């Protein structure tokens, strides 16, 4: 099994900054230069890289996702969480980040966000450098 990060989400929809945990896993691998894949093994959660400086950005993303994909819209999926699956696919299940000198290469304002769409739950994210 690849290294993994455990994340506890507190609400049904949430974006959690996991950049420092991912960085820690990269340092654990001892890899100096390469790539890091951060992968979400869940069907109702996703991952993205976006602005971490202003929390309003994540709030805007969540608001717009809820507008585009409302919780109730005559979905056929019996489990009642079709919107969570759709939002997860929109965000995607992995991101790739360059690694240089053991550190993630991210833009000044960039952070890695775990995206919960069917919480609160305890989730897992795989990290492979
Ligand atoms: Zn489902």
Protein model, in words:
The chain has 3 helices and 8 strands, in the order ββαββααββββ. With 129 residues, the chain is α+β, with helices and mostly antiparallel strands. It has a single domain (3-128), classed as Jelly Rolls (Sandwich). The protein has a 5-stranded antiparallel beta sheet, with helices on one face. Strands 2-7-4 form a 3-stranded antiparallel beta sheet, sandwiched between helices. A hairpin with a 2-residue loop joins strand 5 (94-100) and strand 6. It is globular and about 50 Å long. The mean pLDDT is 97. Zinc ion binds at residues 77, 79, 81, 85.
Quick summary of this structure?
The protein has helices spanning 19-29, 55-68, 82-91, and strands at 3-8, 14-17, 34-39, 45-51, 94-100, 103-104, 110-116, 122-128.
> How many structural domains does the protein architecture include?
1
Q: Count of helical segments?
A: 3
The radius of gyration over CA amounts to 15 Å
Regions with pLDDT < 50 over 5+ consecutive residues?
Answer: none
Return the string of H and E elements.
EEHEEHHEEEE
- The CA-CA distance between the termini, in Å, is 13 Å
- Under CATH, the topology can be stated as Jelly Rolls
**At the fourth CATH level, what is the homologous superfamily?**
YjbQ-like
Give the overall pLDDT as a whole number: 97
Oligomer: single chain
Number of strands: 8
Shape by Cα distribution = globular
């Amino acid at each position: 099994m690849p290294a993994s990060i455990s994340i506890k989400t507190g609400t049904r929809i949430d974006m959690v900054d996991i950049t420092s945990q991912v960085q820690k896993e990269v340092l654990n691998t001892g890899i100096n230069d390469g790539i890091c894949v951060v992968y979400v093994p869940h069907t109702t959660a996703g991952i993205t890289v976006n602005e971490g400086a202003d929390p309003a950005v994540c709030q805007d993303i969540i608001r717009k996702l809820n507008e585009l994909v409302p919780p109730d819209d005559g979905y056929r999926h019996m489990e009642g969480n079709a919107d969570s699956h759709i939002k997860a696919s929109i965000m995607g299940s992995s991101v790739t980040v360059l690694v240089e000198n053991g550190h993630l290469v991210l833009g000044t304002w960039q952070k890695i966000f775990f995206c919960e769409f069917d919480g609160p739950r305890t989730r897992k994210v795989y990290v492979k450098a």
